[in-house]
Design brief:
Helix content is 49%, strand content 6%. By secondary structure, it is mostly helical. The strands form 2 sheets. It has a two-stranded antiparallel sheet. Strands 3-4 form a two-stranded antiparallel sheet. A hairpin with a 4-residue loop joins strand 3 and strand 4.
Length: 210
């Protein structure tokens, strides 16, 4: 199991970028485009977590576009303007390269959606986001690797104290192989006897985790 440790690494920078008030002022054509895009993602069975992240990333971009780019319609954006967004994220918000890549991946997907799905409405549109080079990746956190023997005493203590909720989350983190964002998506029904496999040694997940 690997957990992040900020010692000798970058510190996390938090910025109040979006707000309900700002979103009310965002170009309504961009909001409609976002809603259509999200509906498309749902139709091709993207996970709820992915869709939630895409929407959050788009709201960040819309609020930047509102404040610093005249609330321009996404279809009319230029490579120069996307570059300005990237520069703002690096120099003002102090984002890590990984964070920038994540948000750019979202707006790049939106750009591809316009080209592939809305080509009858925006004839001649060409995706531009993917043409803009992202900053070089760098280590954001110093990683700490825990061995099972490091965590087992903690798990035993939680069980001894009858702190079963924390014990359950820790046990899932230690033994399930899931990412931390997936740990709260387990259902109690997953651990019914009917889901046991390998002669009762393992449980299988009976459905797609979203």
């Amino acid at each position: 199991m690997i957990l992040g440790n900020i010692k000798d690494g970058r510190t996390t920078v938090y910025n109040e970028i979006t707000s309900t008030e700002k979103m009310k002022e965002v170009n309504q054509d961009n909001i409609q485009l976002e809603n259509d895009f999200i509906e498309y993602l749902e139709s091709i069975d993207r996970s709820k977590g992915t869709i939630k992240q895409y929407r959050a990333n788009l709201h960040i971009f819309w609020c930047w576009n509102l404040e610093f780019n005249k609330n321009k319609f996404f279809v009319d954006l230029t490579k120069r303007e996307i570059t300005k967004f990237q520069s703002h994220a690096i120099n003002v918000w102090q984002w890590s390269p990984k964070r920038i890549r994540t948000v750019k991946a979202t707006i790049s997907s939106l750009s591809n959606y316009i080209e592939n799905i809305l080509d009858d409405e925006y004839d001649g549109y060409k995706p531009i986001v993917r043409k803009i080079e992202s900053p070089a990746d760098e280590a954001v956190r110093v990683k700490t690797v825990f061995q099972m023997e490091d965590l087992q005493p903690l798990l035993d203590k939680l069980i001894e104290d009858k702190d079963y909720m924390k014990a359950c989350v820790l046990a899932l983190a230690m033994y399930s192989g899931k990412r931390k964002t997936e740990l709260t998506r387990f259902k109690a029904s997953y651990f019914d006897d009917e889901n046991l496999i390998c002669d009762g040694a393992l449980y299988k997940t009976p459905e797609k985790m979203v």
